[in-house]
Design a protein that fits this description.
Blueprint lengths: L2 E7 L2 H14 L5 E7 L10 H6 L7 E2 L7 H18 L4 E5 L3 H12 L4 E6 L9 H12 L2 E4 L2 H9 L7 E3 L3 H16 L1 H4 L8 E4 L3 H4 L2 H14 L5 E4 L2 H5 L10 E3 L4 H10 L2 E4 L2 H10 L2 E4 L8 H4 L3 E3 L4 H14 L17 H14 L1
Parallel strand pairs: 1-2, 1-4, 2-3, 4-5, 5-6, 6-7, 8-9, 8-11, 9-10, 11-12, 12-13
Helix pairs in contact: 1-7, 1-16, 3-4, 4-5, 7-12, 10-15
Amino acid sequence: MKRRLLIVVGARPNFVKVAPVLHALRGSEVVEVHLLHTGQHYDRRLSDAFLEQLELPDADFHLGVGSGTHAEQTAAVLVGVERVLRENQFDAILVPGDVNSTLAGALAAAKLHVPVIHLEAGLRSGDWTMPEEINRVLCDRMSDLLLCHSPEALTNLAAEGIDEGRVEMVGNTMIDSLYKLLPVARERDPVGRLGLTPGKYVLVTLHRPALVDAPDRLDAVLSVLSDAAEHMPVVFPMHPRTRARLNESAVGQLIASEPLEYLDFIALEEAAHTVVTDSGGVQEETSAMGVACVTYRETTERPVTTELGTNVLVGMRPDRLREVLEQRVVVDADAMRSPNGIPLWDGRAGVRAAEAIERFLSR
């Protein structure tokens, strides 16, 4: 008799991370997979489109929680997942990443004594002002199987006293999805549609509350980016949170747009000269593709991207951002790409994760 696994997804990165695992478990003789979509991201470009592009099946359960404060969103997912677990028999629940849906799904399962599997476990920034750091630490404490994507995650979990018997190193499933979808993404040609030249523009994504909710900080970044746009086009697809807080006059010479669907975004990302971001996933994708990345944050939970990848952490310092962009955009405008040298970011992480899940549920 197959073991029944509930996979919880709620935000854009979740879809990208779970798709390779779900595909690898299709036809499994051990595991029967069911999908729950919390609806944490409610813009179609940030949710439903992924079900099509990543070839994910329709969700078996849909909570439709939408937006709200952290407490409202987490509470709605907690109540919804608990109801689904009470009304259906599942042998385990899988939660990816570190968003509110991740924490709420893990907590609902733990309270009902349903084993928890955490995909992308062990990441740590050390920054407790980040909601994601709270979510990932608490989720790891509740998890029965922790699937890690980079070596430092193993070190972090060991330092916290988590039994190594619960931990498996499988690699980065997000990179599986990236490699799979890049050929299709290129065919959509967002670079050409925007009138850009490959390797001759800067791509920007900024959305974290610590930045966009502080008008002075956001204006300072936009000023630096506007100066960079005098030397190279700067493309800025804006997260809804960022647009809601933006002084339109501060956009200046930037090529601003609505949020992009995943395929268009990764195609632009691959062809960019440099990417400026405060996103975690973008740090990973650029390092995997060999694209220069500048991360505008004080800390990163993905230090492997600065050690073995292409990422530079500049803090929330406009002067440092300006210095790096001037070097890269003006001085090194024809800089060559660097290859991905990160272990197990090879497009096979989903298969390894599926095998670990089958072993776990067989026990």
